[in-house]
């Protein structure tokens, strides 16, 4: 029962995010998206779908520490989304004249949302005993994000305010790397 509830909430969250992202991107003028973002986007959507669906279909007994980790990430995810507002999207599209977020989690790191997503893709299947799915999802996500983040940062670095604020900020976790 708990697996159905958690996976259902994760799926609903992702569907609402896709809808909001489409609305945000449609409102941008002069938006730029790199070719790797366009190439990896369907694979990222497929990965999230496979992790949620696989966890729902194959998951077993709940592992409380992993479930707690997954649930603990949710307030941080909402903090990221709230901070970015209509600047946030799932496609790594950078609008022309972007006002760079320097508050909230962006006061500490460049890409907190990617860190949260990586944690979720590992913790959700692990929370229901699917360690191999968690490991595979983590590895695939790392490859996809490596391609995507380089390109996204190249677009973001065109904004002087981004270069100034994030020059000394780590990519994912404060105080690491």
Topology:
Blueprint: H1 2-27, H2 35-58, H3 64-84, H4 112-126, H5 131-156, H6 160-166
Helix pairs in contact: 1-2, 2-5, 3-4, 4-5
Account of the 3D structure:
The structure is a single chain. With 177 residues, the chain is mostly helical. Helix content is 67%, strand content 0%.
Give me a quick take on this structure.
The protein is mostly helical and 177 residues long. It is 67% helix and 0% strand.
Tally the beta strands.
0
Q: What is the 3D shape?
A: globular
On the 0 to 100 scale, the average pLDDT is 90
H/E element order: HHHHHH
> Which oligomerization state do the chains in this entry correspond to?
single chain
Radius of gyration: 16 Å
Main β sheet profile: none
Structure annotation, total helices:
6
The end-to-end distance, rounded to whole angstroms, is 39 Å
Quickly give the structural class.
Answer: mainly alpha
Percent strand: under 5%
Proportion of residues in helical segments? 55-70%
Q: List unreliable stretches of 5+ residues.
A: none
């Amino acid at each position: 029962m708990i697996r159905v509830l958690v996976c259902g909430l994760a799926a609903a969250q992702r569907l609402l995010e896709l809808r909001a992202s489409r609305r945000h991107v449609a409102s941008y003028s002069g938006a730029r998206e790199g070719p790797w973002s366009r190439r990896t986007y369907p694979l990222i959507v497929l990965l999230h779908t496979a992790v949620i669906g696989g966890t729902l279909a194959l998951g077993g007994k709940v592992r409380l520490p992993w479930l707690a980790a997954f649930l603990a990430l949710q307030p941080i995810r909402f903090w990221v989304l709230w901070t970015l507002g209509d600047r946030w999207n799932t496609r790594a599209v950078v609008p022309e004249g972007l006002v760079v977020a320097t508050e909230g989690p962006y006061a500490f790191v460049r890409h907190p949302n990617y860190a949260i997503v990586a944690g979720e893709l590992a913790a959700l299947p692990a929370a229901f005993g699917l360690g191999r799915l968690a490991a595979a999802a983590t590895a695939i996500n790392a490859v996809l994000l490596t391609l995507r983040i380089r390109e996204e940062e190249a677009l973001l670095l065109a904004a002087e305010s981004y270069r100034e604020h994030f020059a000394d900020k780590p990519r994912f976790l404060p105080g690491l790397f």
